Amino acid sequence: MAESWVNPAESLGADLHLELTGPGSKRAVLMRALREAVRSGRLAPGTRLPPYRSLAADLGIARNTAADAYAELVAEGWLTARQGSGTRVAAQQVAPTSPVRRQRTPDHSHRPTYDLVQGRPDPSAFPRGAWLAAARRALTVASHDVFGPGDPHGRAELREALAGYLARVRGVRTSPRRIVICSGVAHGLRLMAAVTGGRRGWAVEAYGLPFHRALLADAGVHTVPLPVDEHGARVGELGRLGAVLLTPAHQFPTGGPLGPERRAAVVDWARSTGGLVLEDDYDGEFRYDRRPVGAVQSLDPDRVVLMGSVSKSLSPTLRIGWMVLPERLVDDVVAAKGEREQWSSATEQLTLAEFIASGAYDRHVRRMRQRHRRRRDQLVAVLAERAPRVRVTGIAAGLHAVLELPPGSERAVVKAAAWQGLAVEGLADFRHPESTDLPAGDGLVVGYATPPEHAYAGALDALCRALPPAQP
Amino acid sequence: MAESWVNPAESLGADLHLELTGPGSKRAVLMRALREAVRSGRLAPGTRLPPYRSLAADLGIARNTAADAYAELVAEGWLTARQGSGTRVAAQQVAPTSPVRRQRTPDHSHRPTYDLVQGRPDPSAFPRGAWLAAARRALTVASHDVFGPGDPHGRAELREALAGYLARVRGVRTSPRRIVICSGVAHGLRLMAAVTGGRRGWAVEAYGLPFHRALLADAGVHTVPLPVDEHGARVGELGRLGAVLLTPAHQFPTGGPLGPERRAAVVDWARSTGGLVLEDDYDGEFRYDRRPVGAVQSLDPDRVVLMGSVSKSLSPTLRIGWMVLPERLVDDVVAAKGEREQWSSATEQLTLAEFIASGAYDRHVRRMRQRHRRRRDQLVAVLAERAPRVRVTGIAAGLHAVLELPPGSERAVVKAAAWQGLAVEGLADFRHPESTDLPAGDGLVVGYATPPEHAYAGALDALCRALPPAQP
After folding, report:
1. Which pLDDT belongs to residue B137?
2. B293 CA to chain A: closest CA distance, Å?
């Protein structure tokens, strides 16, 4: 067997790849290789080199040879050696010849000062301490198979925690087996498009996320807009379409819950035509009034696919969402995800399971609900004082409100906001391009959960300055 | 404004969704709703209910009403109340009517006793303590934007750490800007297929992962097999193909590194035809002899795309990999990933960046290298004693070896292994279906890194019993 380049006694240093080729003594060859690595920029200034004993063992050369090479390169100024800090690459006195270090990352200095764009919880509210504690508990007791190839169905621990949580909080009727973990609602929509083929076209709400419409179009699903009024989408005319995508808890973005008659009607439609109801439960946990609005899924778990995620309640960074499926679709959706889990980290799935099971998720959602309600109240109060003609709607739930604007003024207000350093979206951004129905008129979609606490008052002030003056 | 259903003073309990409808007093309505939630199985036995004060505040009813409803349901046996443990759903004495709890998860009791399938590091070797410590350090100092929507390019901290690490250990020449984070090599291949369109067809090695060939076919890329010998793939006849996918560090699965002349030749081909070299660096860190084999990428960073991941070195569970790209492809690949980061968790990207920067990744790789080498030596020694006619190849690197078998015996040996409770793959599983080239003949691909420590000797014993007898 070949001699090994790893010396077990020396083996816990840093790794260094060097090609020892060309003429000369071993010391000369090693010095040339190290100089070349520094000159080319491959070894950056400050990089710590392995101890000479490790390097000698790795390369199969005498320790003295490695030690001498280091010492000479220190003398030449390529390396520095300091007691306790080891041998490092010196601060650059030789211009690197490699072009690759000259790239600059793009300049982000033109960001707006204030951000009221919907759909993003304030990132400073992430419960770091509680999350890390859950990670520690979860990983300490986890079985080894967590670190194996993974199951596209999702970790059983998380599916179990979600089945209990969604039943308790959203009235969902399901079992862990019927839940499939995905990376978020967008991923869930792609999977449903792949599984159903989207042959007959899908109905979507006339107002909704352009991002969702675009991904459905990419997946070959033709979308047909449904008019929206104060009772949510008008679901009376679905005909032979294959599916309908709804936001029943809180129509996105206009803000009303789907009315009880329409809930019953859409489920009847699904039963009689074999169609599917896709329920995007994007902010079902954030209601501020007393009437709880349960999931449509509870009316018929065999006809409704509920999709949700932690993106609004915790953070979009985790890439964890869920699909609650009719039994007959589970295997197809798991197969559509691919051979192995390629999306959500299993360690974070376990952490979320522990976060839910320990009650930390409930506590976080409650804390956020209080914070959002306080912000909503502040928004309403400021507008009542400074822009009394502006009507605010969609405020019973969610993380955003809609400000109704005088007809024809929306684009001017969005532009005026930009001049105030405020990023905010107009309703037009959300309208389906084929929609002829304009019940919501002109308006602003104000995401009041987005700014950090210290910037909220400033954001509201900038908003008021952008709105049409109170006295015409 | 409507009264709120959240009472701030009571707000840190569990959430519970109940529909209070129908005739009767508030207490009767609440009791009916709770009974129904338990009867339907929506509230599982043992589920902890919110304190009656929280529930009363949530539902906007008097505290006494909620307390009375709890007390009566305890008396009826639906709930239990114990000091310090709160009010919980009682162990089921009423059969649930919901069908959803009757599902059973599939039975996995027929797993093999021993596992020598390649490609999966022993999950029990995951460095839980060091990983958790890195997570704590990373999340404690992270800026808030980590918890925002995310950048499909990948976290700058991780791209910076990888640029330094890959330069130092694999000789890669790049900058953080040219690195794009993906969920693994499979994801990287999909992105490259999307970006290049795969119009002209790609060359792949005649032996390789069927999983990769399948995903390329799904993406519309026609693959052409390249013959493989002891110097790796024969890259002489690439002609007008659009790209060539290689495993230069350690041909997968036959085991030799790509020879120096072929490295130069494939880069020349790429320069003269505008083709791309896709370098799957799947186990470049695990070499046991003294000759380091650097990345082909270093020969021409503008023609070679290097793809790697932590799946073999740390765990496939993290879903973190990287692509080192020519500058001209960076923006296209980032765009192909989609509008936001939908794959890798940003918190785990930060944790990995800290894990690398702190030296913990180097230490882990070294420890694993020692362990793999010890296992490889044990495999070779056991075979020399018990199956001296079996030649072992591809052992200078990686996490697997190839055992050459007498012609025509491969299927029988894989079957005999299954009878011994041993999962192991034959070379035929990896052969391109259109390949007419059979240089590797019959053989077994033995993943010696897969079993946990305690099961390795048993796995080797089962392997020897499955091999053809020493005396024919």
Report:
1. 96
2. 8
Inter-chain touch A15–B105, beta carbons under 8 Å: no
CB A342 within 8 A of CB A181: no
The alpha-carbon radius of gyration of chain A (Å, integer) is 29
Q: How far apart, in Å, are the Cα atoms of B442 and each of A304, B127, B391, B408, B428?
A: 51, 37, 11, 7, 7
pTM of the model: 0.82
Q: Do A44 and B167 touch (CB under 8 A)?
A: yes
Helix (H) or strand (E) holding A463: helix A453-466
Which distant-in-sequence residues (6+ apart) come within 8 Å of A212 by Cβ? Answer: A185, A186, A189, A204, A245, A280
| Contact criterion met (CB < 8 Å) for A317 and B147 | yes
Using a CB-CB distance cutoff of 8 angstroms, which residues of chain B are in contact with residue A98?
A: 173
- Taking CA atoms, A243 is separated from A110, A246, A255, A435, in Å, by 42, 10, 22, 18
Across the beta sheet with B425-426, the strand order is B391-393, B400-404, B443-447, B425-426
End-to-end CA distance of chain B: give it in Å, rounded: 90
ipTM rounded to 2 decimals: 0.79
Q: Give residue A123's identity as a one-letter amino acid code.
A: P
CB A292 to CB B5 under 8 A?
yes
Question: Which of A59, A126, A147 is the best mutation test for B, with the most CBs of B within 10 A?
Answer: A147
Q: Is the dihedral of CA B450, B453, B457, B459 positive or negative?
A: negative
Q: How many angstroms separate the Cα of A139 from the Cα of each of A145, A164, A320, A348, B378?
A: 11, 21, 17, 9, 31
Q: How many other C-beta atoms are found inside a 10 Å radius of the C-beta of residue A421? A: 14
Q: A212 pairs with which residues across the strands?
A: none
Beta bridge partners of A404: A391, A443
The domains of chain A are located at 8-89, 114-123+363-466, 126-360
pLDDT digits (tens, 9 = 90+) for A290-309: 666 789 999 999 999 999 99
Fold of B114-123+363-466: Aspartate Aminotransferase, domain 1 (3.90.1150)
What is the per-residue pLDDT across A34-84, written as a single tens digit (0 to 9) for each? 888 887 778 888 888 888 888 888 788 888 888 888 888 887 778 888 777
Confidence of residue A280 (pLDDT cuts 50, 70, 90): very high
Cβ-based neighbours of A356, under 8 Å, separated by 6 or more: A158, A161, A162, A164, A165, A362
| Main-chain phi, psi angles of B182, to 5 degrees | -135, 180
> Side chain identity at B263, as an amino acid letter?
R
Instruction: Tell me the β-bridge partners of A278.
Output: A245, A305
Report helix, strand or coil for A276: strand
Closest CA relative to residue A300, chosen from A338, A335, A274, A334? A274
Average pLDDT, rounded, for chain A: 86
Task: Say yes or no: domain B8-89 is CATH 3.30.1330.80.
Answer: no
φ, ψ of residue A81 to 5 degrees: the values are: -130, 130
Residue B138: CB partners within 8 Å, gap ≥ 6? B347, B350, B351, B353, B354
Residue A14: half-sphere exposure toward Cβ, Cα within 13 Å? 25
DSSP codes of every residue in A122-174 = -GGG--HHHHHHHHHHHHHH--GGGGSS--TT--HHHHHHHHHHHHHHH----
3-state secondary structure of A4: coil
- Contact call for B370 and A1, based on CB within 8 A: no
What is residue A207's DSSP assignment?
A: B
Q: Assign domain B126-360 to its CATH architecture.
A: 3-Layer(aba) Sandwich (3.40)
B402–chain A nearest CA distance, Å = 16
CA neighbor of B185 nearest in space, from B325, B82, B307 = B307
- DSSP run (H or E) holding A308: strand A304-309
Contacts of B356 in chain A (CB under 8 A): none
Which residues on neighbouring strands pair with residue A280, listed in sequence order? A307
